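Milestone M4 deliverable, item 7.
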Amino acid sequence: MLKGKTVLLGVTGSIAVYKICNLARMLTKLGAEVHVAMTPNSLNFVHPLTFETLTQHKCLIDTFDRNFEYSVEHVSIAKKADVVMIAPASANVIGKIANGIADDMLTTTVMACTCKKLIAPAMNHNMFHNPIVQDNIRKLRDFGYGIIEPVNGMLANRDIGDGKLPDEETLLEHIIREIAYEKDLAGKKVLITAGATQESIDPVRFISNHSSGKMGFAVARAAMLRGADVTVIAGHTEVAPPMFVDVVRVKSAADMFEAVKEHLSESDIIIKAAAVADYTPVTTADSKIKKSDGDMSIPLKRTTDILRYIGENRRKDQFICGFSMETDNVIENSRKKLLSKNCDMICANSLRTAGAGFGTDTNVITMITAEGSQEIELMSKFDAANIILDKIINA
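Output delivered:
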């Protein structure tokens, strides 16, 4: 995912630096070239050999180190870097950078970088909320630096408060968002439905389906990484939503319908990946569940066809993509949906195809448009999501 990308990690004097060792390892596993700049104080918490072993690059520590090949090293790395992340960022280094002080290798290198710079503060709760520190953070934000807010938790002095460095996975996602993909969806608003709706029968039971939300969330993450402003209307899901997207939680098909109506007009691309329950119990006052010989019959009515509503109420410049899960006549039935629901594309798959059912991490999809169809072979749902977005962008 990060092959060909260069990441510069800046570490300062904080006990949280141990997390950055793992972050460096995670970045290299994704194919990134990783360089590490260390402040003199950080050497009290981790030995440079740790980072050098993980990254296969000499750490940047001494501005006047004579052991490098002939080059102005801080300028050389600054030119190569696609993103800089300073984590953990101490109050001292935040203050230096915010006020233009470059008196060590880390701050000197950062001053020479023109790429996106991310700052992840980590410090004592009271220090983080000190007005001077907060003013320096505001300065950096005004200068275009990305600020990764610390989380609330147990700090090094055993206090509970703000100032804890986020986990490595969160830091990695910030880097991936910045550099993994071209921002070919920048400025676009994408609306996605995901997961399964639930129709209550009574306080205990409900009607639903086996949708996990994995495909919808995969499309949401792919669109976000490509620069889109993403809103996901999510029913029941079995996985966590991706970072950096707005999630609107709903329960029933009626809830999802109302949420879609609210966001429809402002969206440029609408992708309906949710598996909506087709029926809901009748809730009139005189309706009762009928029991006979141990069987139970429930009066039902059809839920609103959300995709049809989207197609009937679309703007001409919107792109509408629906998903179709079939068991028989997959292409024929999906092409009928394309026409009857006024969509631009239907992504069809079959429950009978291995790797394409509910709850899997893979999918096998046929993209159907008015011009024809294109198959996506068995692959991860995230990879399939990017192919779907490619098709939409090039439509």
